[in-house]
UniProtKB/TrEMBL annotation:
It comes from the Bacteria. Residues 10-86 form the HTH rpiR-type domain. This is MurR/RpiR family transcriptional regulator. The keyword Transcription applies. The keyword Transferase does not apply. Keywords: DNA-binding, Transcription, Transcription regulation. Residues 144-286 form the SIS domain. The lineage of its organism: Bacteria, Pseudomonadati, Pseudomonadota, Gammaproteobacteria, Oceanospirillales. It comes from Marinomonas colpomeniae.
Amino acid sequence: MEHQTPNKLPDLLDQIRSQYDLLSKRLRQVADFVLHSPSGVAFGTVATLSKQAEVHPSTWVRFANTFGFSGFTEMQKLFKNSLMQEIPDYQERVRSIKDKQKEKENGQVAGLSVSSLLAEFAHANALALDDLATSMSDENLKKTIHILVNAKSSYVMGVRRAFMVASYFAYALQHIDQKAYLINGMGGMYDEQTSNFEHDDVLIAVSFYPYAAETQVVADTAIEKGMPLIVITDSLLSPLAQMSSVSLVVKEAELHKFRSLSSSLVLAQTLSIALAYELEAKKEGS
């Protein structure tokens, strides 16, 4: 693949997305990391980034060469310059606060108290929620509500970490008198729970990296039935995003290697309440 070397980070990220399917398996691992954590690329070393992406250090060099750079250092400058020109994102701001909390007057690292840990997580989530409010596409939100308003029944699917969001979403929909069903696969009965899918229903799939195969199978079934697919995920590279009617990408707070679910839950709550208002307006207008 030949590329014109980008001189702006958004241009590089666009190239990575457009060429993603043409990359080798190892280069896709690097691409996943780059797209999910550009700030990590800006401040990491080849050694640390290789461990995090689970690739050999030479893979980062090959990745940079693939997109027209002479090496990793030249590509990394693009990330550093971009972040220096912008207001630090919420993850960088949280990291800065964490570093300050760890400093003692004698310069030694202090253990974090429960109250300071709570402050870190609360602040990280506050910043993530602020990002959610400013970055979520209004067009995608309107399209999501339009699909939900016109659906006969809503099915909600999410496993492992995503299960909490999916179960809450189904609960919230049921409390606005919508026909909503949680697909939980209890007893391995995914086939039975999806047997009533019809083309005028909707599937809401919640899926975060690493993307669950179970959710993919249920989504495939919904697509075969001609159902619209609403996806809540963490990247447009999610397999479900590429087959969805609408994708809602959420950037959760991540601290001490733990990812929050606050933003996804707020999104589910917002959509449920917005749907309730829309249904009420529809009744009044009929």
